[in-house]
Write a structure and sequence with these properties.
12 strands, Rossmann fold, 681 residues, flat, three-stranded antiparallel sheet, 3 domains, 10% strand, seven-stranded mixed sheet
Length: 681
């Protein structure tokens, strides 16, 4: 102990330059014991605590463990959109590690088998991992503290060339700060063939402008790591296909690779697999150079696709990888139909030897939200609510990928400039038939919630209004609330009574379901005053207004059927030349004849619908609400004449040809070209 005190005195004298020390005279032994124990504790701690590298690897492993499956039966049932299975029904959620933690976890990144390029410089640590070039965790945390800013969820353009020009500006800004790798990911579907050709032509000018700007330097150098701009091309369909062995500095090679992309007829688009493959391949470029304190390269992913993709369950992983490695994703895509999954695309056979008349091809281009948030309801005899209209955003998963990584989703449609309803003959080939479009600036305030499935379910648990709307939308997705029968010919009294009775039976099935739909929505009504989101306000008000209108229409419909079956007679003809009416037709009417209760519900429905029109102008919700208001809630009978089937059969057929022996060669020349059905797109 004396030697310890002597040593402490000596240290004090050397550090302070003073002869007198606090250790002169009697020193309490508890102080010496305390110091000894502190030294022992620190020594043991250094033995059991992991190193900085080990902590980084532990963090990385936390971000790559299997994702937790969300049990959501108690929140929202498994639902389907009206036309296809929802790509996110039962989707996996995120792990417990936040995106910010994932960003900081990448100080040491495992190298993939296909990642090294022969003439790019790589630095490996002794344990075979790719090093970051940073000596300490402090510098690493500071370097990776930058989190990708939120991107743009929807930029509307009328042509892909406008999107390419905007992306070229992003590439130029990236080149001003650092060397850059641009990875183009192309959808291999047949519907994208024409757009891919247009983009190729536009890219020629983009790369020429980049070269003229002087940002590229000498692109003829042999060492790829010295090139200012590198380009890679990846194709995806049912499989992911690299089109280049390694990135190229020459655009001619990239352009040739794009031109060699083959058609995929499977109809499967694994876009998220393509993104994760590319991110894993190039995430080593996120490494920080200790000399420059910059990443080796900036990375930009550009996806070109006219579909929503079929592997939405991999979106969470794609988002994590791109955010952790600060890779913004840009998509040149299509607008998603409002509240629907499929659209009707105008398809023309690319082979001129086949019939060139337009055909309808079903393509998955939506929806814009994670789960259905729009009712599928049409009890008026009109299809105004069920037609396809623009949502103002792209497909949910691709748009979320852009938004979460700081990129931009470009919703391209050539009919976007139209200020009125678009007709089928005005739709460009290989474009979706969307009747109306909405301003992207207006729609920014109505952005969907771009969050994980787990976070979405949590939000529904905490908000009865949102939960009730999603439940109601799922309820109407079952397809049982079909368009009612409105025309009843009376050629035979017994058959007429039977047809009216069948319609009454269908109405008897619909009425309780409409009551159930209204009760689902009414459960969220008390939370309406507290809802701050414009999107959820508009969605809920429209839904409950539609549900109430449908409920009143169904009650009145049933009553009107009972009336026509028992007490109504056709009016006599005006003269001998006018045939006697034989058909009853139901038409909407302002009169509600089922009592004061129905009238009160009708007024409440109008109040909700008018609020949507007033509070959310120039939006899809307002357009649908206005249409609903324009259609009276009640019904009235009209009578008309329908030619009986036996009279149509008596009409003379086309006369026989005067040429009994037509020229076979002439017949062959007059035959139309064969017609092929649209492939899987």
């Amino acid at each position: 102990m004396k030697n310890v005190i002597k040593y402490l005195r000596r240290i004090w004298q050397i550090r302070t330059g003073r002869v007198e020390t606090p250790f002169d005279g009697g020193v309490p032994f508890w102080i010496i014991s305390l110091i000894a124990h502190l030294v022992l504790i620190l020594f043991v701690a250094t033995l059991i605590m992991p190193s900085v590298e080990e902590r980084s690897l532990l963090n990385l492993s936390a971000t790559t463990e299997p994702l937790e499956v969300i049990e959501n039966e108690n929140i929202i049932p498994d639902v389907e959109f009206d036309d296809m299975l929802s790509d996110d029904s039962g989707a996996v959620g995120e792990s417990d590690v936040s995106l910010e933690e994932a960003d900081l976890a990448m100080t040491v990144i495992d190298i993939q088998n296909d990642a090294p390029l022969e003439d790019l410089d790589l630095d490996f640590s002794e344990d075979g991992l790719l090093a970051t070039g940073i000596d300490g965790m402090e510098n690493g945390a500071e370097a990776f503290a930058e989190i990708a800013t939120k991107g743009n969820a929807g930029t509307a353009v009328a042509a892909a060339s406008g999107a390419v020009d905007r992306i070229s500006e992003e590439i130029m800004q990236s080149l001003e700060s650092n060397k850059t790798l641009v990875v183009w990911l192309f959808d291999q579907s047949g519907s994208l063939l024409e757009q891919r050709t247009q983009i190729m032509r536009r890219l020629d000018k983009v790369y020429q402008d980049l070269e003229a700007s002087g940002l590229l330097g000498n692109q003829d150098q042999t060492q790829l790591q010295n090139q200012r701009l590198l380009t890679d091309v990846i194709a995806f369909g049912n499989t992911v296909t690299p089109m280049l062995k390694q990135p190229t500095a020459l655009y001619e090679k990239a352009s040739a690779a794009i031109g060699k992309i083959e058609l995929d007829t499977t109809g499967v688009e694994k876009v998220m697999e393509a993104v994760t493959t590319a991110a894993n391949k190039y995430k080593w470029m996120h490494k920080i150079d200790s000399a420059t304190q910059k990443r080796k390269r900036n990375i930009r992913f550009i996806i070109v696709s006219d579909e929503a993709g079929d592997d939405g369950d991999r979106t969470d992983m794609a988002v994590k990888l791109c955010r952790a490695n600060q890779i913004p994703v840009y998509v040149i895509g299509v607008p998603a139909p409002f509240g629907r999954q499929q659209t009707d695309v105008k398809w023309v056979d690319p082979d001129p030897n086949f019939d060139q008349s337009p055909q309808v091809a079903k393509v998955k281009q939506g929806p814009e939200s994670r789960m259905p948030e729009r009712l599928q309801l049409d009890l008026t005899g009109y299809v105004g609510d069920l037609e396809m209209i623009d949502s103002g955003f792209g497909p949910f998963n691709l748009t979320r990928l852009c938004y979460e990584t700081g990129g931009i989703y470009f919703a391209v449609h050539p009919n976007r400039r139209s200020t009125r309803g678009v007709r089928w003959n005005e739709v460009s080939n290989y474009s979706a038939f969307l009747r109306h479009f909405f301003d992207s600036e207006t729609m920014k305030a109505y952005r969907p919630d771009y969050i994980s499935q787990k976070a979405y379910q949590t939000a529904l648990k905490e908000n009865p209004l949102r939960s009730s709307l999603v439940r109601a939308a799922a309820f109407t997705s079952a397809g049982t609330l079909a368009t009612p029968r409105l025309r009843f010919p009376n050629f035979d009294e017994a058959q007429f009574v039977n047809s009216v009775s069948r319609a009454q039976r269908d109405a008897a099935i619909i009425e309780p379901r409409l009551n159930q739909l209204f009760e689902i929505l009414r459960a969220g009504e008390p939370a309406r005053a507290e809802e701050s989101s414009l999107r959820w306000q508009a969605g809920f008000d429209l839904a409950i207004g539609q549900a109430l209108s449908a409920k009143v229409r169904a009650e009145t419909y049933n009553m009107m059927l009972a009336m026509v079956k028992t007490s109504m007679k056709f009016e006599p003809p005006k003269n001998e030349d006018t045939p006697r009416n034989n058909t009853w037709i139901l038409r909407p009417a302002d009169t509600v004849t089922t009592g004061s209760r129905s009238e009160k519900m009708a007024n409440k429905a109008r109040t909700y619908l008018q609020r949507v029109v007033d509070k959310h102008p120039e939006t899809p919700w307002a357009m649908i609400a206005q249409r609903e208001l324009n259609i009276p809630i009640g019904w009235q009978w009209r009578q008309t004449y329908t030619e009986p089937p036996e009279m149509r059969q008596r009409q003379p057929q086309n006369p026989p040809s005067n040429n009994p022996n037509p020229n076979p060669g002439q017949q062959m020349r007059n035959q139309p070209p064969p017609r092929r059905a649209p492939p899987n797109l």
